[in-house]
Each structure stands twice: as structure tokens, then as C-alpha cells.
């Protein structure tokens, strides 16, 4: 339930960024009209019948990379939400017992428990937070590309902060490898 809320909020924020940056992947209609009008004016001025075509639109590399990372992050976040709902449903079904006697409840639990282990329900539930962190990392990487395209100073700041977050995150993940008493 908590992962559903976190993933939903993350997806909503991410969607706002994707909507804003998605426009950079297609040509600006006003620029195209201005170029076409310029071509018409130059052809009329020279009375030339040769036709020149506009060069194909190429989105800026930073916009392309930012959108690739943001779409990957959004897709991953939605996949996480989907699996979080499945795990919640599996666990609800596991705990749902309409039996009256404690003996019947215990028997039903003993019957269902091996299925949770066999189908790796606990492992799936355990990997969801890590996948959500991965989605966040993709989003932050895309944000670095996006901010660089806006302003290099903002891009440098964003990259420094994201690199600091990534370093602390990797240290927290690797901490238990170096110390068995690590609480992470």
C-alpha cells in the first residue's frame, strides 16, 4: 500500500516533466512556418523554380536523452505499481480466512504458506523498493540532461547533487558487505 502511494506520487511528478520536455522531440511548428515563408520569399525574389526542401528535424541530443530516461523511469514506476498491487492482493488472499475455528485457520495457513515461498512473493515484495530507487535514478539522470540543456550552471549543480545521492545510495547498499553490523 505504501509503495503504491509512493509510486503514484512519483509517477505524477514524472509525468509533469515528460509533458514539458516531450515537445522538444518534435519540430516547432512556428519555426517550420517561418522557414517555409522564407523559402517562398527567396524563390519569388529570384524567380527560381528550383525547390529546396527543409532539412529533417533532429531533436537536441539532451532532449532526446532526457526523454529516453524519463520514459524509462515512468514505465518502470508503472510496472512497480502493478507488481505492488499484485503482491498486496496475494498477501490479502493469503490472510483472508473465513474459517471459524483456530484449528481451521492454522490448517489453511499451513496449506497456503508454501505457495508464498514457491512463488517468491516475499522476494518480489522485497525488490520493489529497489526498483523504485532505480526509477528515481533514471529520473534524476534525465533531469541532469534536461537542466544542462537549459543552463550549464544549473546542469552542473544538478549533476553534483545527483552524483552525491548516487554515491550515498551505493555506499548504503554496499555497507553490509563490509560490516555485518551495518543497519542498511
Model description:
The chain is an all-alpha fold and 184 residues long. Helix content is 80%, strand content 0%. It contains six helices and no strands. It has helices at 2-22, 29-46, 61-95, 102-118, 121-150, 152-178. α1 (2-22) packs antiparallel against α3, α3 packs antiparallel against α5 (121-150) and α5 (121-150) packs antiparallel against α6. It is elongated and about 95 Å long. The model has no long low-confidence stretch (mean pLDDT 82).
Brief description of this entry?
The protein has 184 residues and is an all-alpha fold.
Helices and strands, with pairings:
Layout: H1 2-22, H2 29-46, H3 61-95, H4 102-118, H5 121-150, H6 152-178
Helix pairs in contact: 1-3, 1-5, 3-5, 5-6
Largest sheet: none
The multimeric state of the shown protein is single chain
Number of strands: 0
The overall pLDDT, averaged over residues, is 82
Q: Which structural category do the helix and sheet elements fall into?
A: mainly alpha
Provide the helix percentage: over 70%
Radius of gyration: 26 Å
Distance between the termini: 22 Å
Order of helices and strands: HHHHHH
Number of helices: 6
Low-confidence stretches: none
Keywords:
184 residues, single chain, mainly alpha, 6 helices
